[in-house]
Amino acid sequence: MNKIRETMLGLMLAFSTSAFAEEAGSFKESVASFSSFVDGFFSDYTGWFVSLIFKSVPVGEANFPLIVGWLLFAAFIFTLYFGFVQFRQAGLAINIVKGKYTDPNAKEDGEVSHFQALTTALSGTVGLGNIAGVGAALAIGGPGATFWMILCGLLGMASKFCECTLGVKYRTVLPSGAVSGGPMYYLSQGLKEKGLGGLGKILAVGFALMCILAALGAGNMFQANQAHAMLSYAFNVPSEFGVITGVVLAALVFSVIVGGMPSIASVTEKIVPWMAALYIGMALIVIIANIGQVGAAFSAIFEGAFTGAGVAGGFIGALIQGLKRATFSNEAGVGSAAIAHSAVKTKEPITEGLVSLLEPFVDTVVICTMTALVITIAGLNVGPYDGSGLTGVTLTAASFTATAGIFKYLLALAVVLFAFSTMISWSYYGLKSWTYLFGESKGSELAFKILFCIFVVIGATIQFSAVIDFSDAALFAMSIFNIIGLYFLMPVVKKELHSFIARVKSGEIKAYKK
User: What is the mean pLDDT of the chain?
Assistant: First the structure.
């Protein structure tokens, strides 16, 4: 009887194992088939749009995307027009974030504090662009790309200042106290004041459509996909288990975004400082452990910025990659951050413009530079950026783990946190664009939130390239509609700036003791 029982148990075990293997194989095929279908669809029907947005012109041995030039030129114009406001008023901006100019007894429209608005917008920009994007830039453009990232970040501070001031000035405060603002509102209302209502409406609708697409793609699917990719890299999680990662992330995202902007801000003000501290702390450990290479790393960055010796594309390649990744990372001129900053509690639009100019500095000048230094130092030691085949998040991960193996796991945690924070912020950007087009009803809001969470699962499940190309194109397309409006409206911002600074100097606007 024992032998019969053992035989039966053996057969049952073999059958169940075989059945499981068959089911697993079938699941893998289903995921691969779905992934191919989605990617093929976007490749077949949206390729023209991607080509249009990323239209390039030959410059030396490289191709320069016109959309990057569009953003960089605007940042340069705003920097000059506002008299280098990002440098002259940096101290005032920091004091505003600290709450020194916030009257504790005043009741002002808005939903969040200056600090909460800043961390919410930062959570949308400080993300995988700082990790994977910088890795991609240095893999192609070499360490010299870092210099151009820093320059673009410094100039982009003026773009953020302009768009976020307008976001507060033209926002709509609903009867419930909730706020809707951003480019959709200042494009339509601001240009209407100038007798250009028709143009303003076209720009606003175009921006809103592109923002929804970018929210579902670059701000959602890409984040979930790369988070699972990092988990697979660090913990050997099978790629086909992405659906589990997606469901967990979607549940976490929904639990936050269902509460609206106050809930999102409450989470971001806690998570952003910690995730930034974790990442910067890791980078500092690598830099200190390799302190003897720091001088050589900076030399490689500055030499590569202008010569690009041994780097694909040379000087132009470094310039293009640096500018491209910086504009993608800090989103200055894209208009997304203005949506978050519009919800701030203030009656002075210029205060939030000043607060927002700190974002590109933190995102690009500090965090992206930290990443670039780690990669460059590793390159001096083992040379991962000069042809070893690594790029993106794998290059960054390899550069960290070259100093200590445990960084692979800490970086995985940082990537998940960055992805999560980016998703909850971009859900708000997409939601406000959605309600601008389809109405502010609770049903409309819930429909978008559910749709957004479904796309989290899809993003973590499939492997794609054309989908990301399309969502990247939508993100950059937002800047076309936004910057056209900014050129018309920047005199409004300048008037607000002069008025506010004059009242601060006269003592009419005073600092409060904390």
Answer: 80
DSSP 441: -
Element (H, E) at 172: strand 172-173
- Residue 270 burial by Cβ neighbours in a 10 Å radius (0-12, 13-18, 19+): exposed
Q: Give the HSE-up count for residue 264: Cα atoms under 13 Å, Cβ half-sphere.
A: 32
Task: Report strand pairing: 56-59 vs 172-173.
Answer: unpaired
Q: Which residues contact 291 (CB under 8 A, 6 or more apart)?
A: none
pLDDT tens-digit series, residues 75-107: 999 999 999 999 998 888 888 888 777 766 667
Rg (CA), the chain: 24
What tokens appear for 459 in the block? 């993003």
* CATH number of 61-506, picked from 2.40.10.10, 2.40.110.10, 1.20.1740.10, 1.10.760.10: 1.20.1740.10
DSSP per position, 194-232: TT-HHHHHHHHHHHHHHHHHHHHIIIIIHHHHHHHHHHH
Question: Which of 333, 305, 387 shows the shortest CA–CA distance to 140?
Answer: 387
The three-class DSSP label of residue 62 is: strand
Q: What is the pLDDT of residue 312?
A: 46
Compute the distance between CA of residue 379 and CA of residue 399 in angstroms, rounded to an integer.
Answer: 8
DSSP letter at 512 equals P
Helix (H) or strand (E) holding 58: strand 56-59
* Predicted TM-score (pTM) of this structure: 0.84
pLDDT tens for 382-431 read 665 554 555 566 677 777 887 778 888 888 888 888 888 888 889 989 99
Q: Which amino acid is at 111?
A: E
Are the C-beta atoms of 496 and 211 separated by less than 8 Å? no
Residue 157 has pLDDT above 80, yes or no: yes
Instruction: Provide φ and ψ at 172, rounded to 5°.
Output: -115, 125
> In the chain, where are the structural domains located?
61-506
